[in-house]
Amino acid sequence: MTELKISFRFWAVIVLTGAGSGLAGGLLMKLLRVVQHLSYSYPSGDFLRGVERVSGQHRVIVMVLAGLIAASVLYAMKRFGVQSGGSLPDAVWKRSGEMPTAATLIRSFLSIVTVGMGAALGREGALKDTGGVVANKLSDWFGMTPAQRQLLVACGAGAGMAAAYNVPLGGALFAAEVLLGSLSLATVLPAFVASFTGVAVSWLLLPNAPAYLFPALEVSHSLILWSVLAGPLIGFLSVGYVRGIGWAQMHKPKGWRVFVLPLVIFTALGLAAIKFPQLLGNGKNIVQFTFSNQIGAGLLCWLIVLRPLATLLCLRSGAPGGLFTPTMTLGAMVGDGMGRIWNHFAVGNEAAGYAMIGSAAFLAAATLGPLSSAVFLLELTRHADPLMVPLLIATAGATVTARRYTVHSIYSTE
Fold first, then answer.
1. What is the pLDDT of residue 135?
2. Does 322 reside within a domain?
3. Which of 108, 127, 138, 237 has the smallest set of CB atoms within 10 Å of its CB?
4. pTM of the full structure
5. What distances in angstroms separate CA 240 from CA 67, 87, 108, 237, one per listed residue?
């Protein structure tokens, strides 16, 4: 990044960026909840339980409607010349933070609606993109330089990410480490201010609670050894996943396929959800099940294959959405599966530890952001501090291995 001129006005805009991102994030999360409850007719409780209560036919109908909505909006954007302008990382890295307001907001609302209806993508995509738009507009209004705009947009995206999961430190590190590629004071401090402000504002609309319930665990020498061995293998597996994401991003539909492909893929996902309702949504509930050891071995094997396939196909359809929770979900399942095998040779470790470490390691390797990924998992659970040593070992091993085979992450595949 070029040298920044930091002034009182800049810091005022940082605070406004965080506040705007937090407020937008809170409202989008409220909209997500409304869509989920209306789609699956449940008054309270978590998403997957609501999906499981309805019939298979109901799931198919909802996903057909989601496909029609996605296809219609994407086709209308193309028909009326509303250009997407590329991804948020692309805006930060190549256009000094310049983002098209209308197209980004339309895609963000579409993302929230389709994810709420069951698309196998992450909810955070809409929140970080909207945070970027907030920062971009504030940069216009306050006459920020290109370098300041670049930093502000990354901070706005990090604040949106933080609001999505109630992870202020993780959101700040995501902005600095993943989006800006720098952990200098000039990037980290503004990111902290924006994310902390964003999360504080989001508490006006969202609960201040950890995203996952996690048991109290003790670390064993066996778990540390498992982390040493599992980290590189998880990193290697992540390379294939990242390449799959790249393939899906590069082959988004064009022409008449913009209208047809979302409908076909979402309908297929609805049909698959008759047998596997766990395929719907961003995967948050599956992570919790791995932490609670509530997934049978047979179902786990199926989901390790089908969940990432569902995410890749949803991306291939052209539907917008995030990748954070789907990636973390796959990592939790892979860690859980590898841990079950390990327990045949070294009993005594709980499934939650394997799932937590696998989730952090896979996320770190797929984003090439080891520090932010480790902090994300610690903040999401708030009770995993005893796992710090094996978690960091596995995260380092996975990231080094992934970096050996690819320079891309799930955010730099386009």
1. 95
2. yes
3. 138
4. 0.92
5. 27, 21, 27, 6
